[in-house]
Structure formats: structure tokens, C-alpha cells
Design a protein that fits this description.
It is built from 10 helices and 10 strands. The chain is α/β, with parallel strands linked by helices and about 260 residues long. Keywords: ATP-binding, Nucleotide-binding, Transport.
Length: about 260
């Protein structure tokens, strides 16, 4: 049984005067515990597809199921991590990371203690009573990840979560997120414009073509890279070969993403 199944997704945005097709006949599956990336030029429908998978947008045609159930009925099982941390500035870090549990009516003392422990495991010791403005960008993103993981989602959606960070912080956070998701055996989908990031973090990379968005090619990342941390993967001899292969495919589509 496929953990996540995306079946013949087609989506068109309609206005009073026009119709723009963002996605056309997109089908793929993701296995439980797998980390996959969506890579492609701007306007290829990556974020639209992510919103459809999360149940935030209904496709014009097609279905998305998580463990054979429609995703629209499973929104509490799907977590989202975005470019911005979206921590509430007037709430403490503790209040922010417990917010999802509170909204879902699942907050109790045991859950609170578990979430605080996770915060500390993320290297954020003693920050519970601080406010977001007192933390660096990388620290806030770690807190946002704790808030997402606290609700124990079955599927984690990552929409360019590192793009606003400086390069050194980005590399450190890639390792932290990758190791954390592996330890929790989480299934994740990353949307990115960064070829290197997609290779370093993923088991598979889906390359989309634009106008309308379709899966152009699927790349299986070599095992030696999958078994490495993202930082080590970037320095592995096999990294350059797969990078060049994906780069050439992007060139054939008439665009180059970041490297």
C-alpha cells in the first residue's frame, strides 16, 4: 500500500477573464518514511501541488490519498513548515510551540513535557520564556519545527524552509532537520529551488517542467548519499555526478535553479 498517492492531478486557476493551468496529469507515490523533493522552475506548480497534498486546495481533477484516505479529512495528520517561521511575536517560545496541540485540544502535561524536551534536543535550552524577537532566524526556524512535530504529523510539508537563512545556518539546519525526521521516521516533501539541497536531503527528486507543471523526470539519489548527512552528502564524490545530471535536465527545460 502506498503511504501517499497523488493520482492524475490537474489544476486550473480561473478568473473572470482567464484560465491558467498550473498542473496537468501529475501522478506519483511516496512511501512511509521517505523524503522526496519537488524541484523545478518558478511557475511549475510545485507549491500548488504542496497545497493540494496538504488539503488546503481542492484540485480541478484528480485525487490525493494518505493511507487510502482523502487528505481533506486528515489535515491534523499533515504538518507544514514554511519560509517564514510565523511564530506569534507576542507569545513566548513555549506558548508558540504548544499552540498546535492547544488548538487541536490535545495539550496536557505529558505532551507539554515531551515538546519542551524536543525543544532542548534542538539545541534550544532555556528559551521557553523568551519571545521570538530574542532568537536568531535559525533558532526561530528550529522552534517552528518543534511546533510542527509536537502534533505528531504523519506527513511533513517543507516549503523552502531554509531559503531566508544565511548559507552557514542553512547547512546546519538541513542536517538538524534531516536527522530529526529520520529519528522520528517521518515522511516529508520538500519544495525547493536549490538543486544541492534537494540532492543532499532526499531519497528521490521529482523534477517538474513548467507551463503547465508536469513531472519531467524522477531521480533516485544514490544510497551512499542517502545514508549521509546533508553536509557530508555535499562533499561526497557521487554528489557532483547527480548534480550535473539534474543541472543538464534543468538546462534542457530552459531554466536553471539555484545551486
Amino acid at each position: 500500500m502506498n503511504f501517499l498517492k497523488i493520482d492524475r492531478i490537474h489544476h486550473t486557476y480561473f478568473t473572470k477573464t482567464s484560465a491558467v493551468t498550473a498542473l496537468s496529469d501529475v501522478s506519483l507515490t511516496v512511501e512511509e518514511g521517505e523524503f522526496v523533493s519537488f524541484l523545478g522552475p518558478s511557475g511549475c506548480g510545485k507549491t500548488t501541488l504542496l497545497s493540494i497534498i496538504a488539503g488546503l486546495l481542492s484540485p480541478t481533477e484528480g485525487d490525493v490519498t494518505l493511507k487510502n484516505q482523502p487528505v481533506q479529512s486528515l489535515q491534523h495528520d499533515i504538518g507544514y513548515m514554511l519560509q517564514q517561521d510565523y511564530l506569534f511575536p507576542w507569545k513566548t517560545i513555549e506558548e508558540n510551540i504548544l499552540l498546535g496541540l492547544k488548538v487541536a485540544g490535545r495539550l496536557n502535561e505529558e505532551k507539554r513535557e515531551t515538546t519542551i524536551r524536543l525543544l532542548e534536543e534542538m539545541g534550544l535550552v532555556g528559551v521557553q520564556s523568551q519571545f521570538p524577537k530574542q532568537l536568531s532566524g535559525g533558532m526561530r526556524q528550529r522552534a517552528a519545527l518543534v511546533r510542527t512535530l509536537a502534533t505528531e504529523p504523519k506527513l511533513l510539508m517543507l516549503d523552502e524552509p531554509f531559503s531566508a537563512l544565511d548559507y552557514q545556518t542553512k547547512l546546519k539546519l538541513e542536517d538538524l532537520v534531516s536527522n530529526t525526521l529520520k529519528s522520528f521516521k517521518k515522511t516529508a516533501i520538500l519544495v525547493t529551488h536549490d538543486i544541492g539541497e534537494a540532492i543532499a536531503m532526499s531519497d528521490r527528486v521529482f523534477l517538474f517542467s513548467a507551463g503547465p507543471g508536469q513531472i519531467h523526470k524522477t531521480f533516485i539519489i544514490p544510497k551512499e548519499l542517502r545514508d549521509s548527512t546533508p553536509f557530508d552528502a555535499r562533499n561526497h564524490p557521487a554528489y557532483s555526478d547527480i548534480f550535473q545530471t539534474i543541472w543538464k535536465e534543468l538546462e534542457s527545460l530552459g531554466t536553471k535553479d539555484e545551486y
